[in-house]
Specification:
The complex is a heterodimer of chains A (about 110) and B (about 120). Chain A is mostly beta strands and about 110 residues long. Chain A is about 0% helix and about 55% strand. In chain A, the strands form 2 sheets. In chain A, strands 2, 4, 5, 9, 10 and 11 form a 6-stranded mixed beta sheet that branches. The termini of chain A are far apart. In chain B, strands 2, 4, 5, 6, 9, 10 and 11 form a 7-stranded mixed beta sheet that branches. Chain B is globular, with a radius of gyration of 14 Å. The chains are: A mainly beta (about 110), B mainly beta (about 120). The interface of A and B includes residues 40, 41, 48 and 95 of A.
Chain lengths: ~110, ~120
């Protein structure tokens, strides 16, 4: 099955700093999503990005499908950005998502 | 448009008991998936339903079973609960490819504690 590796596993930032989270996957996929899991456990969909680049406010993501990796950029981080960020991939829209182990981000004031 | 809703939010059960968790999919989504997330881990796929039929299953024993109803809502049933079943259970809904797939939408989860 697909293997998903995320790095770094843990990240501590000062408020206002920028960061880059990485996701490597082992096979060609047609679905890739980035999620933020809040302290209450809900997975918030940040990006549906099987390829290309997208931006949403202070967040942006880039997936290079041919090289099997995706990057999530967080700029001007805020304490509310704290939580766990997951990358998840699947072969297609009807096949199950395979998650990485996540990056735990702590933003301190 | 309504999101994915799950109930209950928290639950405590005794080892050996049975539990039913419920999920209402996002409006118009006809595919429902269930995931188990142990503490400190990423979610693990349990099974998926499309048009009331199971069409994919992860590495979980048969005591994990499910249903999908005509309105696309779903249930996850776990029999003979074990301590290791303690986890956050997440439900996700989606549209199949060819119907405007934009990824999976997750509910807030049910936190199950088995004592």
């Amino acid at each position: 099955g697909i293997q998903v590796e995320q790095s770094p596993p843990d990240l501590i930032l000062q408020e206002g700093a920028n960061s880059t989270l990485r996701c490597n996957f082992s096979d060609s996929v047609n679905n890739l999503q980035w999620f933020h899991q809040n302290p209450w456990g809900q997975l918030i969909n940040l990006f549906y990005i099987p390829s290309g680049t997208k931006q949403n406010g202070r967040l942006s993501a880039t997936t290079v499908a041919t090289e099997r990796y995706s990057l999530l950029y967080i700029s001007s981080s805020q304490t509310t950005d704290s939580g766990v960020y997951f990358c998840a991939v699947s072969y297609s829209g009807n096949t199950p998502l395979v998650f990485g182990k996540g990056t735990r981000l702590s933003v301190i004031a | 448009e309504t999101g994915v809703t799950q109930s209950p939010t928290h639950l405590i059960k005794t080892r050996g008991q049975q539990v039913t968790l419920r999920c209402s999919s996002q409006s118009g989504h006809n595919t429902v998936s269930w995931y188990q997330q142990a503490l400190g881990q990423g979610p693990q796929f349990i099974f998926q339903y499309y048009r009331e039929e199971e069409n994919g299953r992860g590495n979980f024993p048969p005591r994990f079973s499910g249903l999908q109803f005509p309105n696309y809502s779903s249930e996850l049933n776990v029999n003979a609960l074990e301590l290791d079943d303690s986890a956050l259970y997440l439900c996700a809904s989606s549209l199949p490819e060819g119907q405007g797939l934009r990824g999976y939408t997750f509910g807030s989860g049910t936190r199950l504690t088995v004592v």
